[in-house]
Structures are given as structure tokens and as C-alpha cells.
Amino acid sequence: MGHDLLKGLMERIETADRLDPELEEAVLDGMNAAFPGKAVWAAHQPSPLEATDEVLRLVDVVLPNWSISLTGLANETDGRWTCTLRETGVLDNDEMIGIGKAPSISLAIIAATLKIAILSDKG
After folding, report:
1. Cα separation of the two ends of the chain
2. pLDDT tens per residue, range 79-106
3. Quick one: which of 40, 93, 111, 122 is 20 to 30 A from 22 by CA?
4. 68 with 83: CB under 8 angstroms?
5. Rounded to 10 degrees, what is the CA torsion of 23, 28, 29, 33?
6. Where are the alpha helices (H) located in 1-123, listed in sequence order?
7. Angstrom distances, CA of residue 3 to CA of 23, 31, 88, 119
8. 97-102 and 67-71 beta bridge pairing
């Protein structure tokens, strides 16, 4: 999946209210293409990707040992969460930092993971 397609997918995630089945399939296809050999589909369990535990499992597959930081206000009606993915949790000089913003925690994590895929894409 090319840089522009990944960027478009990330933008769709950041503006989505929820992850419908079509968008979920696009995310899994995008991650599978962006992280070849990581067996994203095999790691995916039957529960929807909107489940935060499921999304964390996928991040563990494609970016093992990366640090995940979440910020947001749980009392907002539509929420606004920010996820930051970093190779280290302490240094400011990571080569790649993925930041995703979305109305739900799981969507923010997906967006941050797609941002890493975009930064990693050489095409």
C-alpha cells in the first residue's frame, strides 16, 4: 500500500465516529501491506478492532516493545484522544514518532500506528 493510500486511510480513521466493517478491513489490509511478514491478519481475533485490547494486540505484532502513550478527557461526550507511539519511552530523538488523534482510544491507536507505517514507507 502506497504512502498516499496509507495517509488517506489514516485521515479516514481520525475523522471516523466508529470503525465499520469496511474500514476495519481496510485498516487490516493497510497494516498487512505496511508491515510485511508481521501476520497482521493472523494476529487479529474475532472481536472488532474497536476493542482497545484488540488494537493493542495488533500494535504488539507490528511494533513490538514500542511505548504507547494516551492522553484525553474521558468526560467529553465524543472524546478526543491522542496516542503517541515511540520506540523508546524516554528519549526525544526517536527516528519515528507516530501520533494519532481520534474520538476513541482504539481509533487513536490505529491512527498512530498508520502514521508509523507512513513514515516507514519508502515509496
Report:
1. 9
2. 689 999 998 766 666 678 899 999 888 8
3. 122
4. yes
5. 140
6. 3-15, 21-34, 40-43, 52-62, 105-120
7. 17, 12, 24, 8
8. unpaired
- Highest mean pLDDT: which of 24-33, 51-60, 87-96, 105-114? 105-114
pLDDT above 70 covers what percent of the chain? 78
Name residues whose C-beta falls within 8 Å of residue 28's C-beta, 6 or more positions apart in sequence. Answer: 40, 41, 44, 49
Separation of alpha carbons 68 and 63, rounded Å: 10
Three-state SS at 78: coil
DSSP 48: -
Q: Which of 28-32, 44-48, 68-72 has the highest mean pLDDT?
A: 68-72
Mean pLDDT is lowest, of 26-40, 87-101, 109-123, for: 87-101
For cell 488517506, name the residue. Answer: 8
CB 43 within 8 A of CB 58: yes
CA atoms within 13 A on the CB side of 49: 26
